[in-house]
């Protein structure tokens, strides 16, 4: 992976020093909160419901074992022994104390990490396919381009005060695992007629209070043009984007107010203007970055042990069936380590778990790790002959759950257990759904089903693109949960449809159970997953299951 | 006819730890909701909020939250404020444990 150059190192150290001084001046009273707030937010420090929260960037979800161990050390020394991985592939510490934050930032800098631009109206952490560099279906590893974007956007003087925050997602695969259509800019690698790799450029996607699927402004952008083109988009948005109304400030609104034709024309015009100014420097830099992302030296060894172990051990087989994905080297597998043990908080890892994951990555995974936006940890390169040993080490640690892509692999934002913006809790809803379906032993029978939960309209839990989405609201001082159905975050991105009136806190889990039972009843067979059944059947049978009393009334 | 005033407490987060804090009648910041001053008059509420806002070195983001009288002192009305008196529901962290020691 990319290691900090002297320049990166000096930059991060300087920022840490600068912020340490700002913290000192806040504590001694020289800075008021109004003065300090924008400074702390620029450095990823929020004040939440019960405590401060520090959001640390994990660029495009890539992290090495040494960094993971440092996160464990920070969790233990300065927090309550755990960290929370988010849908933005970041990690959040929920309990830092203000006087400790400089020490935390300096511990992060020691391993080439920071919390810069994890907040504020700037280009945020660029997110990427969590199988990047390993997936069987990948055209090219998208991370060198993501790293180029990171370097370009970090402290970019023109783009520090955008109308609103700006999120870029990138995938190198035709199967979109990075939700690119729900980002301000989505970049999806494709090949042109000549077989050359380039990008489909999608603009104006986003969830939140106005959920919209992004629109393609360029079907094929040659790879070499990427940086000037992205800069052209930012530049046009920086000019047109509304600063008068926070709710209309994202580029998705600019797109709708300006129209795709006109916006595309302006982007192309700006692109023509600035492209010559890049003078090939971006390409020289990209070439250097690409060298840092060279794949590991794959081992060539027999895999028949794996086949035998699968036959011999049903627990291992169940785990392998759900938690492995196809690697481009067929002797290898991509391993997803679930941070969704039934009843646990989605995305949380203890310091011990982080250290174990770091050890396992070194022992079995060429020292590579990724964090997924679905709040799990990925070992992208594990030789099949090591899978059984890896699984054996996971057992008993809370990391062995065989549920990737299943009903208990729930995305949940922190909600009102932590987040100051929340209108309801989301974590306990996720915990209870997972526990309930584990009790019912129905999870594997149900098959692929993505539940996503947000604790407010900001939709950090991606509920709009969940096959089942749950949105927690405050209805007259009581928690209330709205269900959406049929959402999809992949290349066939769709915003879910509202099923009807919301449910009280103690009604939401039974409602989900009725919904899932209706699916089991109506599906054509185990080969028809929830989303396919929903697309075939429409809302009606699910609505009837959710609101049985109303059906009875209609029939009466 | 003016609407009845819902009683309030002044609450904020502590500057150093971020803990939820409440303004008491004798101008202290307490970690305990029931020690807060229950303010039953709108004009007085504004004065207390102003006082809280002047406490820059100890309190961040003070605001007035609805409250009601209880046997041991003021109690929160809204569920958000009730959570703030306890801590998160997924772990026994925050006030719910710290308070069991006092
Ligand atoms: S969706 Fe709302 S409650 Fe959840 S983390 Fe985002 S802002 Fe907070």
UniProtKB/TrEMBL annotation, chain A:
The keyword Disulfide bond does not apply. One of its GO terms (molecular function) is metal ion binding. Keywords: 4Fe-4S, Heme, Iron, Iron-sulfur, Metal-binding, Oxidoreductase. Pfam families: NIR_SIR (PF01077), NIR_SIR_ferr (PF03460). The keyword Iron-sulfur applies. Residues 52-110, 346-395 form the Nitrite/Sulfite reductase ferredoxin-like domain. It comes from the Bacteria. Residues 119-273, 409-522 form the Nitrite/sulphite reductase 4Fe-4S domain. Coiled coil: none annotated. This is Nitrite/sulfite reductase.
Automatic annotation (TrEMBL), chain B:
It comes from the Bacteria. Residues 60-79 are annotated as: Disordered. It holds the Pfam family DUF2849. This is DUF2849 domain-containing protein. It comes from Szabonella alba.
